[in-house]
């Protein structure tokens, strides 16, 4: 009886983990991309504004730059992934990743989980 309860609790926990992992990984990756794009593009845009003679107040932030850059990146990757040349590039990168022991395990598992949810 206790063994059945233990197995049921374990299965419920694993099911929750399988649901949570793709969402968490996606959130983390998008957050990192967004923040890096924001940190890279904001100073670049400020330099362009200053070079064109527009005064920019100290601490000037451009809300949404990272979000827009992230959305553009996802769209561009989608374009690449949906054509033959892009598919070859993606296959080459995946083959490289599959040759690295720890990364192969993590990447393959994450890809399988995400593919399961995409279907």
Oligomer: single chain
Q: Stretches where pLDDT falls below 50 for ≥5 residues? A: none
Order of helices and strands: HHHH
Give the strand tally. 0
Task: Give the strand content.
Answer: under 5%
Q: Average pLDDT value?
A: 84
**What helical percentage do the residues reach?**
over 70%
Shape: elongated
Number of discrete helical segments: 4
What class, by secondary structure content? Answer: mainly alpha
- Biggest sheet descriptor: none
The separation of the N and C termini measures 36 Å
Radius of gyration (CA) equals 21 Å
Verbal overview:
It is a single chain. This protein is mainly α. It is 83% helix and 0% strand. It has helices at residues 2-51, 65-81, 84-97, 101-118. Helix 1 packs across helix 2 (65-81) and helix 1 crosses helix 4 (101-118). The longest helix is centred in the first third of the chain and has 50 residues, at 2-51. The protein starts with a helix and ends with a helix. The mean pLDDT is 84.
What's the short version?
Helix content is 83%, strand content 0%. It is built from 4 helices and no strands. The longest helix is centred in the first third of the chain and has 50 residues, at 2-51.
Jot down its keywords.
single chain; 119 residues; mainly alpha; 4 helices; 83% helix; elongated
Helices, strands, pairings?
Layout: H1 2-51, H2 65-81, H3 84-97, H4 101-118
Helix pairs in contact: 1-2, 1-4
